[in-house]
Amino acid sequence: MRGTVWAAANQLGVVAGTPAELQSALLSGAPRTLRLGQPGQDPAAVGELARILREFGHVRVVVEEAAESGPGVPPAREPVDLADPAAVCAAEPLGITAAYEKDGDAHGGLRTAWLRAGQALIRDQEPAERALALLAALPASARPDLRAALTELASGAPWSVVWTRGPDDTEPPPPGPVAALTVSAGRLLIAGRDGAVRHLDAEPHTGPLPGRVRALAATGDGTLLLLDERGRLHTRGPGSRLTGAVTATLAAHPGTALAAAGDTVLVGDRVGSVHAFGPAGLHQTAPHSGRVTALAATGTLVCSGGADGAVCLWTPGRASQPAVLTERACPVVALHAAPTARGPAVAVAWADGLVELHHPVTGDVRAFRPGPAIRAVAVVQDGQLALATDEMLVALRPARPSPKALD
Predict the structure, then answer these.
(1) Cβ–Cβ < 8 Å for 154, 132
(2) In whole angstroms, what is the distance from residue 205 CA to residue 218 CA?
(3) pLDDT mean across residues, the chain
(4) Which residues contact 52 (CB under 8 A, 6 or more apart)?
(5) Residue 226 and residue 236 in contact, taking contact as beta carbons nearer than 8 Å
(6) What is the per-residue pLDDT across 138-156, written as a single tens digit (0 to 9) for each?
(7) CB count in 10 Å sphere of residue 67
(8) Rounded CA gap, 140 and 161, in Å?
(9) For 67, phi and psi rounded to 5 degrees?
(10) Among positive and negative, which fits the CA dihedral 215, 187, 374, 313?
């Protein structure tokens, strides 16, 4: 069933691992058509998922006969050594998924990694890219030789894994579920869902909030800004008259996204507008159709992402209108921007599980899919990319100069 759900989620542009998660991901969107029964899918799982989604009523389900199998009979597959990373990365992915679901052996950690990253792994891709996703999802308890083998297999991928943190890490302790990331004074800051903020390898140094966190930002004087799920602003640190004024504004007019650069605080709203509060006053623009879902800033460059799937670039105080950096047919869920030796870099994550690192000056784009939904992104250490899912924190380093973006 899991592989069938992943294939359906990929087709519909959402992230889900169970029928219930698939239903939940589809609730906020328009009704869609889903085609099930492609070669490699288990007919029994196809029939069960079709029944569940038809009862849901939000998806038109079309079941097609898979050419490779008769009624009730999964496609024939050659046996694969589930402990051999090279064989697993080269094999038919739906078959590997079904085999791992039936086989409870950990296979040195390979099974855990596959079931974490599976929605990305079942897409058409080179074995090196599959090895990279497995390496990023590998548990801390994995066999050292398995990590080394996956690193070698992933050598042809556009990224290399710098570090990972997961639920089974003991030293340093795991970061817990992450709601937001940012960078302050060159160090990665992590906000948990409860509002506790910490550096990567340290205990939390701020207490929790009354509500769940939606966004995290840091001003030039070290003040931490947290936007909660009700759109209200909370500050930790010295603060200023400006942050006090923004806090009062959002108490009356809730925000949907937050960022800061130097002494400027940026807020997005539900009607597609971005508001820049700074020493020179308030500057506003309306680059999006619908809710602003994410904001980032570096220097004078402001990046906004929306439910419309667009990422726009804007400089407050200039007469020019925002320019579209990139656009896809699903909502933006996270943004971060930072200076690098190649000019500003912008990390973008979408609701279908894709993250891209853009260099607007050169036009270079580099993409990655970890498998699970992405909760937050950050550009760290001159072009490295950090991303958070519900279970993992991962840092990636660009591995070669001519990346190829994923669809």
Answers:
(1) yes
(2) 14
(3) 88
(4) 19, 23
(5) yes
(6) 998 899 999 999 999 999 9
(7) 9
(8) 13
(9) -65, -20
(10) positive
* Per-residue pLDDT tens over the stretch 70-91: 443 344 477 899 999 999 999 9
Beta bridge partners of 384: 380
Please confirm whether the linkage preceding 173 is cis (ω < 30° from 0). no
The secondary element (H helix, E strand) that includes residue 20 is helix 19-26
Q: Whole-model pTM? A: 0.90
What pLDDT, on a 0 to 100 scale, did the predictor assign at position 401?
56
Q: Which residues pair with 165 in a beta bridge?
A: 393
The DSSP code sequence of 353-373 is S-EEEEETTTTEEEEE--SSP
Sheet holding 343-350, edge to edge: 332-340, 343-350, 355-359, 364-368
Question: Burial, 373: exposed, middle or buried (Cβ in 10 Å; 0-12, 13-18, 19+)?
Answer: buried
Residue with tokens 């509500």: 211
Number of H helices, E strands in the chain: 9, 24
Contacts of 243 (CB under 8 A, 6+ apart): 219, 223, 225, 233, 235, 265
CB atoms within 10 A of CB 306: 24
Instruction: Decide: 324 and 342 in contact? Cβ < 8 Å.
Output: no
Q: How far apart are CA 12 and CA 26, in angstroms?
A: 8
DSSP at 134: H
Query: Mapping DSSP to helix (H, G, I), strand (E, B) and coil, where does residue 279 land?
Result: coil
CB 93 within 8 A of CB 371: no
